[in-house]
Design goal:
Number of domains: 2
Radius of gyration: 28 Å
Number of strands: 15
Structural class: alpha/beta
Number of helices: 23
Strand content: 5-15%
Shape: globular
């Protein structure tokens, strides 16, 4: 595949806050630690405090990896698991929900970014080791966000009434969605290879966390990826002191609320708002919020409640029953991992900016925030159509109407733009206004008003001319629609809608290898990959 790159700002698809962060806007500097560049990593590595017990982390990980077939875990991943025991080893982490069949393309892009950043850091700091990590959001409870994917414009959904942490959801009910997904893959190319991977993942493993681990390992183990499921008693025990402090003293609510006020004053649209208590109670199929009412800590929609002393005892004895929400999960991650970078999408980067004051409060290092690589996959057919129409792939980042209008203006043999004509008419009215004002000063504004009305009429006429000419070029404009719909399904970035499946069917594992080859984590440019 051939790669070309454009600035994120030029795509029109990323928030002003993300663009400002990448451009080193001084106003945002208080909300993160170090810049997302090699110098920033050099500074962080000099200041990095050791967090978490590596022996516990590796023990948990090795136990989790026993659930995978030995032959399917690469030597590089096993080496990375061993390296995590060494003090000069650090992680580069991305996280995401357990979307079925990996969900949209950006799931894949996130992990590739982590893999490449770990390689880049090793090249820059050869005396240290860097392990790419995928953090499974196995404690998330929003099943509706992960129970579907879109492939070839077809929505595949796993419709089932479930509750509790999604990682614990049984895979028994996924058969219909699995068959539909395999049906869309077809029988050509590498369809059978991918079909076997997803079939094994969702039928040989009893819950969604284990199924997702198998699927992600099958795709990325050759690159040394380590997969973490933090829904674990031993890992939660390390976090228990902060769980207790935060529930009782509501520190995160105070810290993050204050930060959000400052961000809003800068015009930043905050992504999440903290609650007074930012933990759920997690048992079996129950994951419900903890609230403080009538001097008791109560679990919503249950009869469970604790006094303060009972709560402390419960946290000490059963830390696995306390599940962090969206504002506390990042802190939990940084407590148990020797992490130096978090890779997320645009909205994630903004919400992490809300959290630094809470990290500072608890004395936990804040990682460097890296915007994940974004990309557009372009078929040979779409590229050829684009070239024949005299367009570039970058042109398609415009909205469809503007794209068509600009194409018509550039290609029509007829005079469609009335800008020159209006300039000439405008000069006539300016002379009339001067003359009329000499006769009667009140006629000047009247002449100006007539000029404005005529200007409006002239440009309405221009729109009608363009609309008429569009009918004359209907076939070409339909081709623009076809390419636009392929590259921007549903009217938004391809990576936010389309699943990776059909790209894998065409190229097999080479598809991911191409992403690894062309994605550049620290360049911060949008990647266009063309067959």
């Amino acid at each position: 595949m051939k790669a070309s790159y454009i600035e994120y700002k030029a795509t029109g698809s990323f928030s002003p806050t993300v663009v400002s962060y990448l451009e080193n806007d001084i106003a945002l500097q208080p909300f993160y630690s170090f810049r997302p560049d090699l110098e920033g990593f050099r500074q962080l590595l000099q200041h990095k405090k050791n967090t978490g017990k590596r022996s516990i982390l590796t023990e948990v990980l090795n136990s989790q990896y026993e659930k995978l077939p030995v032959k399917e875990v690469s030597d590089l991943t096993r080496t990375n698991l061993d390296l995590l025991n060494q003090e000069n080893t650090f992680t580069v982490t991305t996280g995401h929900q357990l979307n079925i069949f990996t969900g949209p393309l950006y799931f894949i892009f996130k992990i590739v970014t982590a893999i490449n950043l770990a390689k880049d850091l090793k090249a820059e700091f050869p005396d240290k080791n860097f392990v790419p990590v995928y953090w499974m959001a196995s404690e998330d409870h929003d099943f509706a966000e992960i129970n579907h994917t879109q492939i070839a414009s077809k929505k595949i959904a796993w419709n089932e009434d479930v509750s509790g942490a999604t990682g614990r959801v049984s895979t028994k009910g996924i058969r219909q969605a699995l068959n539909q997904y395999k049906g869309v893959l077809g029988i050509e190319g590498y369809a059978d290879e991918l079909a076997k991977i997803v079939e094994t993942a969702y039928t040989n493993y009893e819950n969604l966390a284990d199924a997702t681990r198998y699927l992600v390992n099958a795709l990325f183990s050759k690159f040394g990826l380590v997969i973490v499921d933090a829904d674990d008693a031993s890992l939660k025990k390390e976090f228990a002191p902060i769980i207790e402090q935060d529930i009782i003293n509501q520190n995160s609510f105070k810290n993050i609320s204050e930060t959000n006020k400052k961000l809003q004053e800068l015009g930043v649209h905050v992504q999440v708002n903290p609650r007074e208590i930012n933990f759920f109670y997690l048992v079996k199929e129950v994951r419900e919020r903890i609230v403080f009412e009538d001097n008791q800590y109560k679990v919503l929609n249950t009869e469970i409640e604790f006094s303060e002393e009972e709560l402390k005892a419960e946290i000490a004895n059963y830390p696995e029953r306390f599940s962090p929400n969206v504002v506390m999960r990042p802190l939990y991650q940084e407590v148990i991992l020797p992490n130096i970078a978090y890779i997320g999408g645009g909205a994630e980067i903004v919400y992490w900016l809300e959290l630094k004051s809470n990290f500072d409060f608890y004395g936990v290092d804040f990682p460097i925030l890296i915007l994940r690589n974004s990309g557009l996959m372009v078929s040979k057919r779409a590229a050829e159509k684009t070239e024949k129409m005299g367009l570039t792939l970058t042109d398609f980042f415009q909205d469809t109407n503007s794209l068509k209008t600009n194409w018509i203006k550039a290609n029509s043999q007829n005079q469609l733009q009335l800008k020159q004509e209006w300039q000439e008419l405008g000069q006539v009215f300016d002379r009339m206004k001067t003359q009329n004002s000499k006769i009667d000063p009140t006629l000047g504004p009247s002449t100006e008003a007539i000029k404005k009305r005529l200007e409006h009429a002239v440009f309405n006429l221009e729109k009608k001319l363009i609309k008429a000419e569009k009918r004359n070029y209907e076939t070409r404009l339909n081709q623009i629609d076809q390419v636009k719909n392929e590259l921007f399904p549903g009217g938004s970035l391809q990576e936010r809608n389309e699943n990776f499946g059909l790209f894998y069917v065409k190229q097999g594992s080479e598809f991911i290898e191409q992403l690894v080859e062309h994605f550049k984590p620290l360049d911060f440019q949008f990647t266009i990959l063309t067959e």
